[in-house]
User: Fold these one by one.
Assistant:
Number 1:
Amino acid sequence: MLLQQVVNGVMLGSTYALIAIGYTLVFGVLHLVHLAHGEVFMIGAFIGLYVVLWTGGGVVPALVGALLGTALLGVLIELVAFRPIRARGGHFLAPMISTIGVGIVLQEVATRLFGSELVGFPHRLEPVTFRLGPLTVTSLQLLILGVALALMIALHVFVARTRLGMAMRATAENLLTARLLGINTTRIILLTFAIASALGGAAGVLVGLSFNAISPFMGIDMGVKGLAIMLIGGLGNIHGAMLGGMALGVIEVLSVAYLASSYRDAFAFAMMIAILLLRPQGLFGSAEAVESRV
Amino acid sequence: MVRRGLSHALVLAATLSLAAGALSPAMAEIKIGVLLPLSGKASQYGITQEVGLRMAEAELEKLKIKGEAVKLIVYDTRGDNPEAINLTRKLIHSDKVLLVLGPFFSAECEVAFPIANQGKTPIITAAAAKPGIAAKNRPWAFRMALTSDKLNGPLVDRWQAANKGQIKKVVVLTDTKDAFTKADGTQVFPGVLKAKGIEVIDNISFQTGDIDFSAQVTKVKGLSPDGIVVVGLYNEGGNVVREIRKQGLQQPVIGALGMSEAKFIEIAGPAGEGVMVVNPFWADNPDTRVAAWVAEYTKSGKTPNNAATLIYDSLFITKQCIEKAGVTNQPDDLARDRERLKDCWTGVKGYPGITGSIAINADGDAVLEPFVLVVKNGRFELVR
């Protein structure tokens, strides 16, 4: 019983981690809380769904479609709602407020286009269920866990080992200096938006498949949770986002199993406050990183 | 010239109508207020009901009521309680409607009904199913829907019969966020089950809007009941049933009123097979009148449900009442007209609606015949 509940929690947590990694990337590079990320995630789910409905394909075309579609959306958001505002050099909160606006627009557009009804992927894509003794896991849950882990490692390698990743880190460190050193920071910022959004889009497809619940409002709760995970993981730390996601998933599931479902979010967020009280820099963040960002 | 001609025509028309008014009081257009959730998260419920409403409106455009046009004043409550209060006030006091149809949700009715009661205006919800909401706001409030306490008894009986009396202990899964399912799952179902000698070993909660039900279902698995009662709306209910089958539980399942809709089958998919539900309206009813109505409704591209037939029937009962109860529809006679309509609604008996034969009881609640249905090959079939 307890073991199955922990498995349930880890599986739920890996979907949270998928979303949190996108947030973390944007924050890590731009120090921007991208509040439309939840909506990008939602659009990704819808793109995946329509790719499946129109082409009759499976999970792979849906994922590819969502990756490409949301990468494009990310670029669009950067060009329309981020770059012009940053260029004017207003208050540092202005870009964040602008992303809230983008989120609302995306939600309304999705409601107009797709309706507010909950929809799911066709049932032929239903995952295979594996039973290992008393434990039940589905192929999809394993896929989500695998994708989340793979993304985490790939991103880590990309950021730490490649030239582009190095440029990204330089941009994160100091925008002006990076530009003086000949790095095209404008392009790096655009790239960051594209990658983070693509990750969000892929997460949308996987969550849509797993929970059978795609709606224009699916990004709201998931967005808040992704944001919170980024905080407990240590702002801008990709491993932290992964572990933070798992932690939140397990805490939620256990609170539902042993308390009541109405405590689900209250308990999870109380734990989060406790973690932040004990470790203000988050699980993986370093103290200097926090200071340098304040 | 054209403008002058027009104003002459207007003056002439006004004089004529004044003259007519002096001779015999002509009726102005008949105003009926409607409250629906048409936007926001709950809009799907309002939109299916609106199709039924517009069907009735289109028919009334031809039929007219006492030769007068009917004007529906439709407002969107967004499923929001404060909005329901404000709009009920607006309909009663500024739009001066004869009667209000709506609001949709039990929680909205609980706050809007007292307003109508104070304003002495009949108010009829065609959806809210929480027991007692009309009874608390007599004499002006009515509920054109079957309360869950009258639905769940027949459902449990047929379920027990289908399982040869083997259901001794069950687990109830309740959506405790929704006002209706909360009352249904924590009071009505446990009461009915106890009366039929079935023990409820646990009552586990989930919330409207939840997407992950793994923890709840794993808990059910550990309790190994003979059967599972899911008290949710169709979205969450469908996914709870899906999770139940995914975790390999084979027990028979029944679902609450909110799950007796085509959308439930769509969400649950193959996992929904064999789930029993209950509803006063059966869309696949072979009865010719129902079938014709369903065919007309389906032209909208949507699937009808009982909320759609009930608001349709409500409007036609209102038509009958306006014709029979001597409603004059004069502005200075509004209070008396509302009184007449209330008295007429109080006495509704054996009205032949699309939903079946309809009567209103002493609590202001409709009495309808419930259909117990089972999901078979992706459709609802009648359990006899």
Number 2:
Amino acid sequence: MKPTKKELKLFHNAQSPIFGFIILIVFSFSLMGLDHRKGIHNEIKEKSTFLITPIIYILNLPKNINESLKILFETKNQLFKKNQELENKIVDLSIENQKLILIQAENKHLRKSIEISNRLGMRSINAEIILPRINNGKEIIIINKGLNDGVKMGQPVINNLGLIGQVIFSGKSFSEIIPITSKKNIVPAIFEKSTDNIIIRGNGDKYLEVTLFPSYREAKIGSVIMTSGIDSLYPKGIKIGRVIKITPQVNNQFNHLLIAPYSSPKAFSQVRIFLDKKDD
Amino acid sequence: MIKKNTFKRNEALTFCIIFFVTLLLSRINIPFITNYGFMPDYFLALFVSFVASRFMHMNIYILFLLGLLVDLLAGELIGQYGLIFISIYFTNFILNKYFIIKSILMRNSQYLILTTLGLIILLISSLSYELNININLFIIKWVLTYLVVLLYNQIIRNFSNET
């Protein structure tokens, strides 16, 4: 008896998935292309934050319980001491603030006289960093402010030390930030004491790098790098980091610059997000 | 008939538990590892184990939908994990069609092939500004993911009471 087509299959008895495979390959490529061009991933993710919110809650639960217990068992003496410290800090800050008010007034006057727009005049809000700090092998920072607080995709994030990153996703009550040290982040920058524009990129570890910096241009160890503002995304003049290592490339036409960022994501818990420009 | 349904429900529950644990693991960093590029791809490891052990006898369409779910929860492009999972499924089908996989060595080689394929597709389809591929980083990730595949495989075997 002649074997049928199905019986001719070797060691696997299941039906061949070749038709489904081809259809799904085409479909997945179309989806990836569409997502890359239109960014549908974030739109869908925005509408399905209810799937991720419980995970974030569970991951933050031990930390929250620990903090609650700490507050519960804090003695009166400890609270009194803390209060004293905070009051001292307020006095220091108010003195500092008086100086700043004077400087701000001078700055405004000078800007007006030389007709430079105030690029740092932006509305901003404070947010707290929560867990997790990683998503499927990619470094992210999650903050407790989202769409409800006016946080949107693309907004720059800083703290008192310098630039931290950029908002890449905003849910209703939380947002995801890509740190400047991530491989998937690039920032247009400028040296503090020269006019050389550069593009810096995270190296996926603790540092930033400029891979192809022309060797005829001057770069010194310790040079401070700040945002150039040419992308209209990051305000001009935010400190990013300083050069810690200069390595000549093989053909000596370019140098590799290693930059240590001023603010490490592991060294702070509060950040400030620039919302939009103030109406002057 | 009733017995068969109960067994399927147990399998589905097992799958949900392992999937949820994987979701948590993918968001927890390993202590002392500062470079997150080293982190194993837990979802890839999970689905290589599921597909290779034929757990729940998932078909290619269900696998693709699960891939889209993973993309939504932990991916960066819609369709990326969908593509990876269907490629793993199809490769596994081809391997099973032309080879009788009986010994542990053969089975481990099968896992290695599927993991490598998945990681290569992930590397090619990922969005990055990198000019060069860091081979050392890729190899470490590959080894760690493979170890997680073996671990998942052991867990799945324990759940499905295989010897």
